[in-house]
Amino acid sequence: MSGPRRRRVTVLGLGAMGRALASALLAAGHPTTVWNRTPGRSAALAEAGAEVAGSVAEAVAAGELLVVCLLDDDVTRRVLDRAAPVLAGRTVVNLTNGTPERARRLAEWLTERGARHVGGGIMAVPSMIGQPGSLVLYSGARDAFLDWRDTLAAFGEARWLGTDPGRAAVHDLALLAAMYGMFGGFLHATAMIRAAGVPAGEFAPMVTGWLTAMLGALPAMAAAVDSDTHDADGSSLRMQAASFGNLLAACRDLGVDAGLVRPVRDLLDEAVARGHGEEGLSVLVGLLHTGGTHRPAPG
Ligand SMILES: NC(=O)c1ccc[n+]([C@@H]2O[C@H](COP(=O)([O-])OP(=O)(O)OC[C@H]3O[C@@H](n4cnc5c(N)ncnc54)[C@H](OP(=O)(O)O)[C@@H]3O)[C@@H](O)[C@H]2O)c1
Predict the structure, then answer these.
(1) Measured between alpha carbons, how far is 233 from 228 in angstroms, rounded to an integer?
(2) What is the value of pTM for the model shown?
């Protein structure tokens, strides 16, 4: 006895991530059509059962769901432009990394052409797609997300963030900021330790343990930001600014560029100068706001 008919999915973009997404769809049994600008990236997918489209328009016409995973917002818009006449009736799930504002503009553009838009943010690397621990964020057209949620589950946990088309993108970029802060800190620390003659591999367990211990402070810091009460909890900004001076002096002595960490020292100094010396790190969040466009977040 055959099961219910599975609707065809099209994947636009077969870079490292697009190939992983298409593979996951095929592994989950979804009929899948693929397209890529440069031919030759689809051989393994074709072997696994994918239809390979010869043009963007052909690919878009084939799928009821379009999963887009291209380099950036400009490329996405240029590629979708080429299929504008056949977009009506389709759901476009854009998993390309981009800005919240561009996601909102793309949603408007797609709506004008009779298509539904769901913006996404992939919090995984290609080898994680379809595996435990893979998280994909979504926001935009709720009915479209609910309609395709079971299919999107092939990529990993599908987490809905609300109807603002840019909400997935801002979460994606904020999480990347946190990740790069951590990697930047690790890279700087490793440069220091190597300059001191210690192999990076010997240092790695120590830095991993330290960062893991410090991660435990994040929920309380977030609560402090939300309540705007910034208790130092034994680690005042005045004390931390003094330690930071030592860190920069040691970098000079070791011959290590302090460019990755100096902005944190500058922010600490500014906070102390503004009278926050006896408060905690969470107060720095307020100093980072520069008054750009900030949208309320509908649910
Ligand atoms: N890889 C990751 O770890 C990761 C993790 C999370 C999110 N992402 C996001 O996923 C998206 C794709 O990443 P990726 O790793 O697959 O990148 P990638 O391997 O560099 O692939 C880029 C894709 O964009 C296409 N492309 C680039 N310029 C184009 C143009 N002018 N016209 C048409 N197609 C063009 C490429 O086609 P060609 O083959 O023809 O060059 C390829 O399909 C990005 O937005 C990235 O930020 C990636």
Answers:
(1) 14
(2) 0.94
Q: Is 41 in the pocket of ligand 1 (CB under 6 A)?
A: yes
Q: Determine whether the shortest distance from the Cβ of 126 to ligand 1 is under 6 A.
A: yes
Distance 71 CA to ligand 1 centre (A): 4
Domain chopping of the chain, boundaries: 9-162, 171-288
CATH of span 9-162 = 3.40.50.720
- Which tens digit of pLDDT belongs to each residue from 137-159? 999 999 999 999 999 999 999 99
Q: How far apart are CA 247 and CA 252, in angstroms?
A: 9
Give the span between the Cα atoms of 222 and 224, in whole angstroms: 5
What's the CATH code, domain 171-288? 1.10.1040.10
Task: Give the β-pairing of 91-94 and 116-123.
Answer: parallel
68 ligand 1 Cβ < 6 A: no
| pLDDT, tens only, 85-115 | 999 999 999 999 999 999 999 999 999 999 9
Q: Is the CB of 13 under 6 A from ligand 1?
A: yes
